[in-house]
Amino acid sequence: MPALHRSEPWTLYCQKSSTALEMVTYVLCFATMLVALIDNNLAMKLYTITAIAGLLALLLRGKPRSFSSQHWLLPLAILIVGAVDLIWYSAFKVDHSPFRATYHGYLNTAKIFLFGTFLTLLVLSSKIRLNRETPFYILYAVSFIIAGYAYSVKTATGLERIDFGIGSATGAAYSIMLVGIISAVSILYTRRNHPLLFLLNIIAVYYALMLTQTRSTLLMFPIICAIALTSSYLKSPKKLFFSVVGFFILLVALVALFSKPIYHRYHEGLADFTNYSSNNNSHSSLGARLAMYEIGFDIFREAPLAFRSADERGARMQALATEHPYLQGALEFSNVHLHNEFIEAASLKGLAGILSTLLFYIALFFTVYRHRSLGLFALTLAVIGTGLSDVIIWSRSIPIIMITGIVLILFIKTNRTDRAIS
């Protein structure tokens, strides 16, 4: 009996330490997500510290009370994506390869997703409940900080398409959209759920996206927000009506304000498609994408079960482009990726790559359903929608934002279980 009494203070100490570390983990997730918008290297270091804190919190928590699929399916899917990437990297990485960027990108992705297993498992089994709504308003303010920073970058540099210093305007747009969705949806988890504030947040994010001039996000983001609005206020017809009307009025006003760059990007995309389909010219943004899809599928079809090195894929891309000159535009991106999650995964990791990506998407939707999470639903639509036109499960900044965003959106959902709308 005395031994039991002595063990109780230790158990209590572990529980308190676990709770403290868990809260530190969520704060670090928030900080890391923001840093990933502007600094890849620092974000990776912060993410590693965040994962260590999350792992320690899990270990101190002890044996889980439940092994329900709602707790482990998403972490398992994330683990599998990371493991497949690590196996692929370990099998094919060679020194002094001309495809060093591809190998390095997948090594980073493997680390981020393997570490993400701890973070998602921690939040899905969390017992922490907050009594204050301050964190929701802090998250909400992020979009306005991003919009202000985007304006300052545009003013200071005069760039036609801002890139936030992370490499490309497209990458910046994807990052802004993912963070913006988390920021916008957070206000819907407050007790008053502020439809007007939600609309203002959308406009702030859309303004920043306009400055990147990334076509896919300019189309996708309003659709996702419209779905979120409809889902959130479906049981309140009056709020739904005024929110939707206000949303479209503000959206039209903002589109009118940026009509020239939107018009230019639209006709540029139309010209790219015409050149590819009618003139067999893939030397354009959209044409190169279509050529990459065709080449990637052909490579996969040759050996569906095989893993291939980036060097082997590059050589095969060169051969196919030589055989079919209209595919030459794809070669510019042979040292990066093929701009579609499934095509990219299939061309390097075969069927295993396709299934690991598909499992990740299914696990996201399953978690949305089990937790009735509107925020995760919106984020999932963005992740999948973007993955069909580009590759975001790759490299550092966007995967970090993806994982930390999932953690934060699930954490705020668990703290709003009293809400009828989730």
UniProtKB/TrEMBL annotation:
Presence of the UniProt keyword Lipoprotein in the record: no
Annotated O-antigen ligase-related domain residues: 203-356
One example GO MF annotation: ligase activity
Bilayer-spanning residue ranges: 20-38, 44-60, 72-91, 103-124, 136-152, 172-189, 196-212, 218-234, 241-259, 350-369, 376-394, 400-416
Presence of keyword Membrane: yes
UniProt membrane topology term: Multi-pass membrane protein
GO cellular component: membrane
Cell compartment(s), UniProt: Membrane
Sorted UniProt keywords: Ligase, Membrane, Transmembrane, Transmembrane helix
Source organism superkingdom: Bacteria
UniProt name for this protein: O-antigen ligase family protein
Organism of provenance: Intestinirhabdus alba
